[in-house]
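Example with several molecule types.
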Amino acid sequence: MSDISVHEQTYEAGMGDYFALLKPRVMSLVVFTALVGLLVAPMPVHPFIGFVAILCIAVGAGASGALNMWWDADIDARMKRTAGRPIPSGRVQPGEALGIGLALSGFSIVLLALATNFLAAFLLAFTIFFYAVVYSMWLKRATPQNIVIGGAAGAFPPMIGWAVATGGVSIESVLMFALIFMWTPPHFWALALFVKSDYGNAGIPMLTETHGRKATRNHILAYTLLLVPVAIGLGFTSIGGPFYLAVAVAMNAWFLKGAYDIWRRSDADSDADKHRVEIKVFKISLYYLFAHFVALLVEAILRLYGLGGWA
Amino acid sequence: MTLNVEHEIHDRRKGRNYGVGILLIGFIAIVFGLTVVKVIQLGDAGKFERFDHVARPQLVPEEGAGE
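Resulting structure tokens for the full complex:
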């Protein structure tokens, strides 16, 4: 093409480039878990207020994604998976991402406070702060436990959804938080076992780089063992029930078997079959979280007809 | 080299302008919708007056009214 030089000098981001800053795929998980947190709560929420609340949580999550991309543009450029993001590829200027991130953060927090309550808005503000500052700016480059503590940011949405409906925090919302919090490390470490070179190139201290792959396998098993009582325990609260418990037992057995298979394997085995088990367990981890939250939703629907729960 | 009248960048700018327009309309719809829902939830629309931060003589109880 003859106009490539003009094209490069005058590139202006389109709407899609700005949207990509908000990490839409992460947003979809946030929307789903926040929606479940809101719907399983004992207090009904007006549908329109519920819609606005979920929108605020999604926009807040997107804002923290934009702030993360602004801060991490240098390391994103060095990783194959992230090199095509709007800032490293030059489609969006870093200052634009910072501006969008800050503006959407303020917008979503204030609107959530006005539409629902201050606790929900505070939790959203804390989530954005935790992801952008504690995780992105501090932990990610400093410690191999980055995703353990940083996982808290991804675990808050159901708690915010619950706070939107009830105006409070309770054992149910804490356990929903704990479920995602404990799930995140084995989920990401399974991923790190088969995309290890990428994080190493960017100098991010992933556990596989700092403590070796054997230690990562041990950690996956240990964290999965710690995850099981949280997932099962949630079944005995007011939002659980026989259906949830059956799903939880089945999914935990499946995930635990996968973690055990990863723990048992050597790197030679893993390289020989191109990380087949690690990839499988990573996929199981996705089904695992999805199944638990769908089961909570099913219990809530059953309760409407007097069938769910333990009563 | 000159930019064509219909350069690709104009399409992108147009897309962005439409995008901002849609977002603004969406924002107005949300604020309007929230207002309607919140007022209806009060049950009595008259209560809404108490939140407008303006001193209204008609809301101040008359002295000795409760005696």
